[in-house]
Write a structure and sequence with these properties.
The complex is a heterodimer of chains A (200) and B (190). Chain A is mainly alpha-helical. Chain A folds into 2 domains: 5-45, no CATH class; 57-189, no CATH class. Chain A has 11 helices and no strands. The chains are: A mainly alpha (200), B mainly alpha (190).
């Protein structure tokens, strides 16, 4: 009985068992298949080898400068301190919502404005739930940090949307994106409580 | 001209230490050393140039912000590669519909025909064909075959089961083989 394709595929990335090694040693057909399998991998590994890539160091450097070197110098912060930056950004977004004259002067339907208010409320609730989440593994911590960066980015976009007076629909989309980002992360970390607008 | 080594390229420990102390020149050396292999990996997994550029940007934001947490005893390129893998897979998870696990792995286990012949030799532009694979299948194919991850590691990255990883790998193989057969037929009739 020859090695199956699944066994062939697994052989390369895992330690061969005694029976698999023995079979490969004694079966010329499977040896040939194993050589073919390695050739297939080599061909795949060459894809995008001659790809042209344009480094964008300046864009990265300016973003690092914007965020400041203080992020690098801080020791690993406690949970509350970890969320300090984007909580401030979130608060700034809320302030702009409250004081922005565009809210008063907008000609769009009150339905969209009501949806925005609801979405902001849900964001606040999700924010509170998030502050109770503690990453338990390095993988979860990495996701935690990724979320923080994405929220900072979204908060900046939200602030800009009010400052530049974009349409209410666009503002709602940004708030909803923020909400979905928080929801997905909380669900992944094991917080399964639904918000008011979610359909069961 | 020095041979391109991708993530295999080593960085002097003094460069890492300088970057940890905030020296921008050292950070730039790190970025220039690993941004291209990071981009290539992202392109293999996503087949999307713009997304791959974004992934590289996010990866190095994280690398350079967290660089103080890196301990010099470990492999720096391995650490960067791990962050890049996570970022690329996160992108795929956000941007692809989840595949229902409708096929049983038992059906896949019994096949013997994928490596009897070198059917891939007729493919001149493997990049174009792999770009046509479904996002999850393409990602698993490259993660398993090129990045050398096990099904268990791939399952962990995707928050799925090992069965998902095996299913996606076979789906990729089946689709590639079918596409190469169609291409051969087309070439023969031309």
């Amino acid at each position: 009985m020859h090695l199956t394709d699944l066994e062939m595929l697994t052989l390369k990335n895992a330690v061969k068992s005694n029976s698999e090694s023995e079979h490969l040693h004694n079966c010329s057909a499977c040896q040939k298949r194993y050589e073919n399998r390695l050739l297939f991998t080599q061909k795949l590994a060459k894809t995008y080898d001659s790809l042209e890539f344009e480094p964008k160091w300046e864009a990265l450097e300016s973003e690092l400068n914007m965020n400041g070197d203080n992020d690098m110098d801080k020791p690993k912060p406690r949970l509350a301190e970890k969320w300090e930056h984007f909580l401030i950004a979130f608060a700034a977004s809320l302030c702009i919502v409250v004081i922005s004259p565009s809210l008063i002067n907008t000609l769009e339907s009150s339905h969209v404005k009501t949806k925005i208010k609801l979405s902001i409320e849900e964001n606040k609730n999700l924010q509170e739930r998030l502050s109770l989440v503690t990453p338990k593994s390095p993988y979860q911590l990495l996701n935690h940090q990724t979320l923080k960066l994405k929220l900072q980015d979204l908060d900046q976009q939200i602030q800009l949307s009010y400052l530049e007076d974009v349409s209410e629909t666009e503002k709602l989309q940004l708030w909803e994106s923020r909400k979905q980002l928080l929801l997905r992360f909380i669900e992944k970390m094991g917080g399964h409580q639904k918000t008011r607008t979610e359909v069961v | 001209m020095s041979e391109y080594k991708g993530f295999g390229q080593a960085i002097d420990a003094s460069v890492i230490t300088k970057a940890q102390n905030g020296e921008r020149a050292a950070m730039e050396v790190i970025y220039l050393s690993y941004s291209k292999p990071c981009y290539q990996m992202a392109m293999r997994l996503t087949a999307n140039p713009q997304a791959s550029q974004d992934i590289v940007h996010e990866v190095f934001l994280k690398v350079l912000k967290k660089i103080k947490q890196f301990e010099l005893l470990g492999s720096f390129s391995g650490w960067v590669r791990k962050i890049a893998l996570n970022e690329a897979v996160d992108y795929i998870k956000r941007n692809s519909r989840s595949n229902a696990e409708t096929e049983t792995v038992d059906e896949l286990i019994s096949t013997h025909h994928y490596f009897e012949h070198q059917w891939w030799e007729s493919i001149r532009d493997l990049e174009k064909l792999t770009a046509k694979l479904s996002p999850n299948a393409r990602a698993v194919l490259f993660l398993h075959e090129v990045e050398g991850l096990t099904h268990s590691e791939i399952a962990h990255l995707f928050d799925k089961s090992e069965r998902f990883s095996k299913q996606m790998l076979f789906r990729a193989l089946a689709q590639l083989k079918a596409m190469s057969a169609i291409k051969e037929l087309k070439n023969a009739s031309d």
